[in-house]
Amino acid sequence: MNPTPADDVLFEVADHIAYITLNRPAHANALTPAILTWFQKTWRRIADDPDIRCVLITGAGDRHFCTGADLTGVNERGGIGVGLGRVSEDIGLTSRHNGVWKPTVCAVNGLAVGAGLHFVVDADIIVASTNAWFLDSHVNVGMVGGVENVGLAKRLPLGAALRMTLQGRNYRLSAQRAYQLGLVDELTVPEELFATAKQIAHDITLNSPHAVSLSQQAIWSSLEMPYSQAIEYGFGLVKNHWHHPDFTEGFRAFAEKREPNWKSD
Question: Which residues on neighbouring strands pair with residue 13, listed in sequence order?
């Protein structure tokens, strides 16, 4: 366990899966400065722990996944962050912010707002319950939607991302519509949300951690490259894996009709 003050975030590792639960249901699972610091430290732990092969992030309760930054006291503090560094230094909430190449499954159990969308857009696989909603309220409170909103534009049609960003809290994207548009990968009833996300995470842990990590890098990096460049980059990662023990272990296990014994990097 690696708790924040008052257990605002719960952390547990079991069967190669790191379970992260935003645990402030009385405050709509909103994020505090201490939680941001916790995530930055915890992603480093995840990156360095070979036993962790996948991460599952969800929220406590059945109403809110995460409603973004806790605005209580922001007026007195004069802002949310110091704004002096890069995304990894000032936000650092997700694997993408921290350059960690281990898959993340996001189980959206309710309302996802503002900074809560970081977890959604940066996840590898997004599972949502039918009572989930997505909205962005940056412009409503005089802020710029310029980080997680870019992620929305990568996963949604441009018009849908712009509507969420510019219309603010007056437009709520339902889980069903998000599934239709491709933001959500799997839609479940609330009672089956966690079990579905857990099964997906479990399936991922059965595969070669090294091959999974390089496959992630190939696909995510392709979003920032021309097609021909992305193909060459991906092929470079393919060749990189040829020299890893998992490459021969996979073929050997298949031939011997047994489960592979993957190497933990």
Answer: 18
Per residue in 173-210, pLDDT (tens digit) is 999 999 999 999 999 999 999 999 999 999 999 999 99
Closest CA to 104 of 112, 95, 114, 113: 95
**Residue 43 and residue 204: Cα distance in Å, rounded?**
18
Q: Please list, in sequence order, all residues whose beta carbon lies within 8 angstroms of the beta carbon of residue 98, skipping any fewer than 6 positions away.
A: 40, 43, 44, 47, 88, 92
Q: What's domain 5-205's architecture?
A: Alpha-Beta Complex (3.90)
- 3-class SS at 171? coil
Residue 187 is inside which H or E element, if any? strand 186-188
**Structural tokens at position 70:** 């806790």
Beta pairing class for 111-113 and 133-135: parallel
Domain ranges of the chain: 5-205, 209-255
